[in-house]
Amino acid sequence: MDRRTAILDSAERRARKGGYYGFSFRDIAEDVGVKSASVHYHFPTKEALVEALGERYLERAKEALGNPADHPGVEGVQRVADLFLTANETDDLMCLCGIFGAELAALPAAIQPKIAAYFDYLTEWLTAALGVGAEPAHAQAVVAALEGGLILSRTKDDPAVLRTIVQLLQTGQKVRLS
Amino acid sequence: MDRRTAILDSAERRARKGGYYGFSFRDIAEDVGVKSASVHYHFPTKEALVEALGERYLERAKEALGNPADHPGVEGVQRVADLFLTANETDDLMCLCGIFGAELAALPAAIQPKIAAYFDYLTEWLTAALGVGAEPAHAQAVVAALEGGLILSRTKDDPAVLRTIVQLLQTGQKVRLS
DNA sequence: GTCTATAATTTGATAGAC
DNA sequence: GTCTATCAAATTATAGAC
């Protein structure tokens, strides 16, 4: 693996644990096995590093999701949900854009459009998967429920929390609980 | 206002902007108009400070929500949603437990039960408001959708995002979008 | 590309005077 | 309770040798 990728891997993992201020260039340098000055060679500033992080995160989601037309209806919901279920159960990591979105007010301004682009892509992909007549607002609500569900599930240290929410989203239970 | 309260107010505001690592004792001292050593007098460690923050945050939610029996059905959903709508539109702040929940893996362990208690309380309160036959899992999904909706709304810098999600939750539109 | 060395600043926390 | 003073450590970032 090339060094730039190793740096991004380390940074992503740490950012998804503790957020923007929760990791340092030295943390990454130790993970990768170099000195912090070498990390600065590849990414001159922390802002540049997390921008690259956000871009890669979106590209990976695009690759993982594929063509929405190939996953119509409920299968599309499952596919988006799997991004969050894998983060939760396989990787034990928060969503990068979820944690950066929560911290947004204290982050370098250049990061905001990268995070927004991620949420927009998931929403648009899901709207397309659900087909003609689907409301983007509904797709956005599903993305929000998954993002919040990941936070609740991790806080309670219980994967069943997110799984149950995904199930409700799939089976079309009413959101209104009355 | 007594000093302890002023310190908690400053810390809460800053924590809800940038998370646990996004503020310092000196930041708070400057907000309050004292020296950082005085902040340490009231809260010896940062961990003690954020624990107090979490406890106060829950107590305030309890006061704001009142008795669930007084707000049956959809009115209960509106009352919980108002906590998030106020954070978003009036205060322009993230939910304290949402941002700490996202950063949880990198926070002092003693904070986790405080955050979990908040989500549990909202879920139990809403389950009670929805009355006999209501599924706690549905109430939890509503809390998750609100927490995630707050993140998406702030990221897009558009209050309508959260408002629309709240509307879907109230009108009982299906979560399944197929 | 990676290193050593270092600058300039900030961090959480403490000792002790008042 | 608040202050001055300080500590030890960590932070982002840069200069320059190799």
TrEMBL record, chains A, B:
<dbReference type="InterPro" id="IPR054156">
    <property type="entry name" value="YxaF_TetR_C"/>
</dbReference>
<feature type="DNA-binding region" description="H-T-H motif">
    <location>
        <begin position="24"/>
        <end position="43"/>
    </location>
</feature>
<dbReference type="GO" id="GO:0003677">
    <property type="term" value="F:DNA binding"/>
</dbReference>
<dbReference type="InterPro" id="IPR001647">
    <property type="entry name" value="HTH_TetR"/>
</dbReference>
<dbReference type="Pfam" id="PF00440">
    <property type="entry name" value="TetR_N"/>
</dbReference>
<keyword id="KW-0238">DNA-binding</keyword>
<dbReference type="InterPro" id="IPR009057">
    <property type="entry name" value="Homeodomain-like_sf"/>
</dbReference>
<protein>
    <submittedName>
        <fullName>Transcriptional regulator, TetR family</fullName>
    </submittedName>
</protein>
<dbReference type="InterPro" id="IPR036271">
    <property type="entry name" value="Tet_transcr_reg_TetR-rel_C_sf"/>
</dbReference>
<dbReference type="Pfam" id="PF21993">
    <property type="entry name" value="TetR_C_13_2"/>
</dbReference>
<feature type="domain" description="HTH tetR-type">
    <location>
        <begin position="1"/>
        <end position="61"/>
    </location>
</feature>
<keyword id="KW-0805">Transcription regulation</keyword>
<keyword id="KW-0804">Transcription</keyword>
